[in-house]
Design brief:
single chain; 217 residues; alpha+beta; NADH Oxidase; four-stranded antiparallel sheet; 8 helices; 41% helix; globular
């Protein structure tokens, strides 16, 4: 049966207001960087949870919302995640990854050492649900849906003033084991959340221009 409907509450802006809002958001997001030098300074977890709530508003296939966000602040769990992630990353950097991939990563200065996973005040481990709690509960467009939610989450965390990083060790099944998640969930990414150190450095990279990525038809 069709769901009951409610009136959509929409705020319409003038063309000038729309451009100003879009420009402001664009400038805020252009300042976001992937950070690997995190401070151990505590952060307001209520703000982090509100950012997760924003991510939960993302669209998803058939509105199944096939995601779980595990907020990890326990010191021992963070340590376990760091140890297991570094084991996988060591295998990746010592021969598991294609030569071309390693060459592309080299200018960014990344390596198998991930001390920030234990140092940062919070980790958000995002899990994708292959299906619901019952196997006959289908989920649709899971990767696309979770990817959109992660985008919402990164934007919300940055807007709240936090530094973040998307970390995707491969394979990631150790995360489900350490965090005792059910079989229908698979780890999608790990997002360290905190403040950057006072002397934090990031690679001097550039993004593609609008004209390189936009096709007008």
């Amino acid at each position: 049966m069709p769901l009951p409907t409610i009136r959509y509450q929409h705020t319409r802006r003038t063309a000038a207001e729309s451009l100003a809002e879009a420009t402001g958001f664009c400038e805020r997001m252009r300042s976001r960087r992937s950070v690997r030098n995190f401070s151990s300074e505590p952060i307001p977890l209520a703000a982090v949870e509100k950012a997760i709530e924003a991510a939960n508003s993302a669209p998803s296939g058939a509105n199944k919302q096939p995601w779980t966000f595990v907020l990890v602040t326990d010191e021992d769990l963070k340590r376990q995640i760091r140890v297991a992630a570094e084991q996988e990353e060591e295998a990746f950097y010592s021969g598991g990854a294609p030569t071309r991939w390693l060459a592309d990563l080299e200018p960014l200065g990344t390596n198998a050492h991930k001390p920030y996973l234990a140092l940062v005040p919070a980790l958000i481990v995002v899990f994708a649900q292959k299906h619901g709690s019952q196997e006959n509960e289908r989920h649709y467009y899971v990767a696309e849906s979770v990817g959109i939610a992660v985008g919402f989450l990164l934007a919300a965390l940055h807007h709240a003033g936090f530094a973040t990083l998307t970390h995707t060790p491969s394979p990631m099944d150790f995360l489900r084991r350490i965090l005792r998640r059910p079989e229908n969930e698979r780890a999608f990414c790990v997002i360290p959340v905190g403040y950057p150190t006072a002397d934090c450095q990031v690679p001097d990279i550039a993004k593609k221009t609008l004209e390189e990525v936009l096709v007008r038809m």
